[in-house]
Every structure is written in C-alpha cells, then in structure tokens.
Amino acid sequence: MLNAEKRKTIYLLIPVILILAGYVLYPSISTLIESLKQNGAFSLGNYTDFFGPKAAANMEALWHSVYISILSVLLSALIGVPLAYIFNRYDFPGRQFFSNIAIMPIVLPSLVGVMAFMFLYGEVGLVPNLIKDLFNLSEVPFQIGGVSGILIVHAYTMYPYFYMTTSSALNNIDPSLEEAAYNLGSSKFKVFWKVTFPLLTPGLVAASLLVFMVSMASFSAPFLLAGGYRVLSLQIYFSKMNGDMEMAATQSVILSFVSIAFLLFMRWYQSRKDYRMAGKGIGSHRSEVNNPVLKAVMVTLGILAMIILLLPHVTLLVLSLVPEGAWTWQTYPQALSFENFRLLFEDPNIWDPVRNSLIMTTLACIGVFIFGMITSYALVKRSFIGKNLLDILVMIPWALPATVVGMNMILAFNKPSVFSFGEVLVGTFWILPLAYFIRFIPLVVRSTNAVLEQMDDSLEEAAQNLGAKWFYTFRRVVIPIILPGVLSGTLLAFVQAVGEFPTSVLLYTLDNRPISIEIMNQLRMFNMGQAAAFGMVQVGLIVIVMFISYRFFGVKSENSL
Amino acid sequence: MSTVNLSGITKQFGDVTAVKDLDLVINEGEFFTFLGPSGCGKTTTLRMIAGFYFPTMGKVKFNDRDMTSVSPEKRNTGMVFQNYALFPHMTVFENVAFGLKVRKLKKPDVKRKVEDVLKKVRLEQFIDRQVSQLSGGQQQRVALARALVIEPDILLLDEPLSNLDARLRDEMRTEILRLQREYDITTIYVTHDQVEALTMSDRIAVFNVGECQQVGTPTEIYNKPVNDFVAEFIGETNLFPIERDQEEGTTFIYHSNDLNESIYVHNSDENVASYKDSDQLFMSVRPEAVKVNKKPMEGVNVFSGKVDLVQFTGESVHTFVTINDHVTLKATELNRGPSTYLEEGTEVYVYLPETQVRIIPEAKGEV
User: Fold this and answer.
1) Architecture of the domain whose range is B228-361
2) Which residue among A10, A27, A359, B322 has the highest number of C-beta atoms inside a 10 angstrom radius?
3) Which domain does A525 fall in, by range?
4) What is the pLDDT of residues B49-62, one digit of tens each?
5) Cα–Cα distance between A513 and A353 in angstroms, integer?
6) Does A238 reside within a domain?
7) Is beta strand B65-66 parallel, antiparallel or unpaired with respect to B57-62?
8) Which residues of chain A have pLDDT under 70?
9) Beta pairing partners, A181
C-alpha cells in the first residue's frame, strides 16, 4: 500500500537522489572510468604505472602524504588537547578571552594562512630576520619550508579540531564521575588516566581521523611550501597541468580510495557504542587557580598562545598595507599605506575577483542551504530502503579531497551530459559554483542532522494532530527549530567557499576567477601587498558573516566545526 | 463528540506484534483509560486512534465514519503528548493558536478562543511567555489548552502526568477531570499508573503484551480481576497457585500446595472468576482483606505464622507474616496508633475471609 507518508518520502527523495546521482556519483564514476583508460582503450595500465617503477614519484608522493598526515595528527593533538584541558578545567584571569582566541585559525582561509606563514617564518620571513638582526647573526636562525613548513601550517590550522572535540567532550563529562573516582580513593593522576581520558578517547579518535583526512587532502600548504617535496594531492594538479588526464584520474582514484576508507572507518567507529553520559550533563566546574606562580604561568601561557595564534593575522594585515614595490630586496617593508585597498575598490579589474567570489559563494550557499535541509530531513525523519547508502553518498564529497572533486568535475563535464543539460560546463562560469555546492553539501547536512536528531518526533505529530498539513508543519514548526543548525552549516560553507583554493585552481576561467586565484597570481608577480589585501577581504567577509550569524541567529562558529 | 470503535485491530512492526486482535468500543463523553506496563501496546493503540500508525489489520471508526487510513491532520483529535511537544520557538499564545490558525479562523476569533481556553486552564497571565519559561505543570496545561481549543471530537492523553512530581500530579489529575467534564469530551487516557487510572476513569482497559486483558469500571477491575496479571498489576495482592478440590455448593474448596492446606471460597461471581478446566488457577487476596490476630481464631482459612516485618507508611501499616518457607502474606491496616502495631517475631494467626478471596486463572498469552 502506497500511503500518504510513503508518497511524501518519495517526493522528497526524487530531487535529492537526482542531484546526488548527477553531481556526486556521476563525476566520481567518470574519473574512475578515465583512470581505466590508456590511450582510449580500457586497461589497468595506469595503475601498474602508478605502483610500478615507471613513475616512482607517485608512490613516493603517496607515502609522503601519509607520513605528513600522521605527523600532522600528532602535532595537532599535542597542541589542541592540553590547550583544551587548561582552558576548560582551570579558571584564571582572561580564560574566556584566550579560549575565544583559540579558534582564530578558522577565520584564516588556507591559502592566506600559508601565505602569512611564509612571510612570517619563511626564508624572507619577519621573525627569523628580526631574530637575526636583534642578535647580529650572520644568517637567519631558522626558516620554514618543505616538510617542516607544511607541518607547522597543518598544526596551526588543524589543532582546532582537537581543541573543539576535547573541549566539548570535557564539558559533557559529568563532574560527578570524577568526584566518584576521588571519593573511591583515586589520586588526581589516576582519575585523569582511568576516568577522564577514557571518556575523551571517542572524541580524540574522531578528531584524529578527521585531521588525517584533511591533511591527506591538503593542497595549499604543499602548493606554496613543498618545493621539490611531492605529495599526492599536488601530483594530481601537476598531472592535469601536464595534460596527462588519465594519470590525474588514476591518482585521484587512489587518493579517494584512501579518504573514503577513512570515512567508512570513522562511521564504523562512531556507530559503535560510545560513552554517552547516562544523566543530563551538569556543566563542568573549573578549578580556580589560586597559586600565584601557577596563575602567572597560566596567564603567560595564554598570552603566548594568543600571540602565536594571532601573528599570522597581524602579518596579513601588515602585508596588505605594503604598496607595490615597497618590499622587494629589503629585509623589512619600506612603506605602509592603504594603496592596495584603494586599488581594490577603485580598479574594476582588481575588484572583479571579489565580485566573482561573492556571487559564486552566495549561489553555492543558497544551494546547500535548501538542498542540505531537505536531504537532512529525509535522512533523519523519514524511513526508506537504502538510507545508509544515501547517507554515504551525501558524505562522499566531504571525504573526497578538494583536488579530486575538481578532477571529477572536469572529467564529468568536459563533455555534454544530461546533468549539465547538454552543455559543456568546464570553462564556463557555472562550473565553480557547482563545485562549491557539491563540496559543501555535507557540511550543511551534518549540522542539520545534529539539530534534527535533537528535535522530538512528537513536535511534528502535535502539529499534524492539530490539523496542519505536512508542508505547513515543515514551514512553521520544523524550519524555525532547525534553522540554527542549517545556518551554522551554511555559515561554515560560506567561510570555506570564500577561501576555497584547490578546486578553484583546477576549474577557474579568466571570467570567474575567485579571490584565491587572484592571490596566487599576485604572489607570482611578487605583489604580496595586493595579495594580502585580497586575503584581508576574505578574512573580512568571513568575520562579517560569522558576526552576523552569531548576532542575529545565535549561531556560534565553533559549533559548526 | 464521538464514539471510538476499534474492531479486530492488529499492529505489527516487522516481526513484533505490538497489538493483537483488539476490539474496543469507547462511548461518547466517556473517560476511558488504557492501563498497562510499558511495551504493552497501549500507546501504539492510542497512536492508531490519532492516525500516526495505521493498523496492520482491523478498523478504526469514529461514530460510523471509517478512519482507519485517514491521515492524522484530518481526524480532529486533540492529543497531549508525554513530553507535551510544545513548539519551543513559539509563545504560549502562538502554541495554543496553532490549531486555530491552521483552521484559518479570523484573527479576533483566534484571540478570543485562545484567551478563553487559557482562562479555563488558569494560565491567562502567561499568554505572552515563551514556553521554556514555564514550569512543568504550566507546560502541561498549555498542552491541554492547545488540544482543547480546537474543539476536538476526541481528546487523547499519552501519559501526560509522568513527567510531573507527585504533588503536581495530584493537582493535575483533578484539573484534567474538571476540564473533561466541562467540555464533556470523549477522552482516552494512557497511563501505567494504577492510581491515576482508578481515580479518573469511567472505564479502564488493562493491557499486557499487546492484548487487552480486561475492560471494566475501576471497581470491577480492582475487585473482580479476570486473571492473575490484572490482579497483580492493579493494587497489591497476595497471589499463589492453587489446585481444584471440590467445586460444589455455596463454598468451593481449593488446595494450596504451598500452604499444604485447603482454601475455602464463597461461591459467587465476586469470588470466583470464570475459567476453563485446563487453566492453572491462582488465589488472590488483597492485603487490606487479610486479618491478623495474636489470639487463635476459629474456622477455616486460618493459618499460623510469625511476623516478619512491619512497615509503617503513615496512613497505613503493612504487616508481613511468614507462614512457611514458601508463603509470606501481606496484611494492611489503617494506622490506629502505636499500640496496635505488632512486634516483629510475634506468633500470630492470619485469616483470609472466604468472601474476600478471589480465584482467578493464569493470564493467557503471557510470555
């Protein structure tokens, strides 16, 4: 019997499945097929080449990627976990302020962050040169680049994953559990290792997997810092630039394989019985630090962390004030002015990328807002066969490295297809907003899922019982309640889309080049001032959107990670 | 106002049968209670009446209209959910007005009706509050007002008092009854609390594992349970298995292996439930019917034992008397001061009056 409920489910699912099939599944399959072709004929040749001696660079790149990812996980955990513990468990002057600063890396788009690090700690970096001059050294004492550079940037940008998960896990631990352990005679040390830490492990494992996946996919840091060091995400880009689409496809498939394996592992891990708190959490209490020495240490630590965390932002600001030609061979910039910003707003050629970014990001955000909401509702509140499969399909764009998404788009839409209404999309304006849309679907779905799962089914039933039809209920009851979740996902999508680089670099055209691409171009022309000004625009946009969504919708940016 | 007529209702979730072959008629204006332990199918039945589930087999009728597969929004029932299901993003007014707005009433009418109903539930001063600012009892009353304001044919209450503390529960019981009488509305009330069921209902249906065990007025259910499940679930009772001995004359005789004695029971509808020859039988005697005395008593159904435990609850005193290794009888008496309490360890005599013992069969279909 096809009753009304089932009919509604089907109506909801049709657009969801069409879009996912057309823009997620079909492009992935196109890449897979391309990887199985050599000179137009089907063969496994590309894979034997990849793993064989013919292109040793590929294997090397794969190992480098894994190596860097593992080290990134360790470094981020080493920074994020203790910081979270200190900020959530001890009370000292300025604690709230420092803990707000702790998530500052997320307002720095990846490319801009890497750029700031280059000019901060790189060969011409301000910090090494400052130390050299202060201590009259003959050479710079240190400089980042290659592996160390990538790792430091990764640690800086990825430690918030550990910081956030640890913080929320700590806040969810019922203090009476620890008190019970003390009461039973455990020492402080033992309580931490036997009670607190085990309760944190599910979150830590999840964060580790996440950081691993993000580092595997990382593109901007290797792109600017790697030098001759090969990583897989970058190899894809090079293969594509050399016109070897088949190899690029093969590399994409292998990188996707690793990432999706991790996604599935993570899903499996999270679905295992985790340590949910039995009772309702009673907000954690912090021990106040009374020892003046300890207090001073804590505050110093906080200030130090704050300086390190904010230096990239400050550097970016300073750089953006350096007019063209004012910092070439000199150690320090010779002049500061608002010239770059003036050009930005006055020269239409320079303003163009900003406009492009705004238009494309907005389009993608509207898309993910609507699509994410519907998909999440279908996934959480409706039951149908194949739900698990759909759930995985939704999450695939999140697991796929940005470079791979870019490759998928190229290989799917460089020829007319049903899903592009018989048009070739590559080389047009539409390819980029579409790519952004696909990449950020999972963000909205995830954050909406979280609120929808919290929403009791009885609310919808109550509305229905009072005579409201489905759409009325959805509009008047469901949407208002889940709006914070949908918005926080969309906000995150906006933040990431504004700074998006890896997909853009594969798909942009002159007419729709976004800010990130223009930053790259300006850096190539050694006009770091203008590049930084563009970076400031990105940061500014992100901050404005975060502020608005916090102020008017109560959406906290840290909740969206 | 409507009657509700359930015929041959069966509901299966996959392999699990939640409700099995249920027939019930709920009369107009009646306060009808579904009582049973959790997982007995009472909420499932209520949800089939509301339209959130469709029965696998059988028919749901309101008066003569077949509602079996009508969607919930077209049934005009008013439901109060266990967790109240108040819309958290709306004020008290907006919550109550929701059903009226759906029905496209004019604004002044909506306002008047909402104000009226809020006055009835004594919440008129909270009309502009956010629901999160209300206490549990107040939220409960908003939920009631929201269900009542649409003038439903049937009022459905799903364990509405289970989230309230004991004192508030008492208060709300009276409040719900008062409103039900005032609106004179057919009401179906789901609960696992026997006190609620006994004090409020016109009639009760006792459920267990998907089957309705007994339908009757509160006094029938309590005094004349049809099987051991009903006897044990409603109220306290002393229950133990017995064998048939002699079923003739004005007094039937049964034999208890546990006591190794005969039990004499008055032959009447009050004392002997209907059963089949193949049924395993039990005797049930309520603690308040059991007489305990220090002096030896004459007659049948008298056993000697030792006081094991005396429990003082305030209004009454429970005395547990151990007869032998298998049987401990519970007796309850109203508190008449410390001089009447028995001391633990005292040798006493226990009398089970022939007119107070009830013989019942074992419930069928129990797992």
Assistant:
1) Beta Barrel (2.40)
2) A27
3) 1-30+339-561
4) 998 888 999 999 99
5) 6
6) yes
7) antiparallel
8) 1-2, 54, 270, 272-289, 325-332, 335, 553-561
9) none
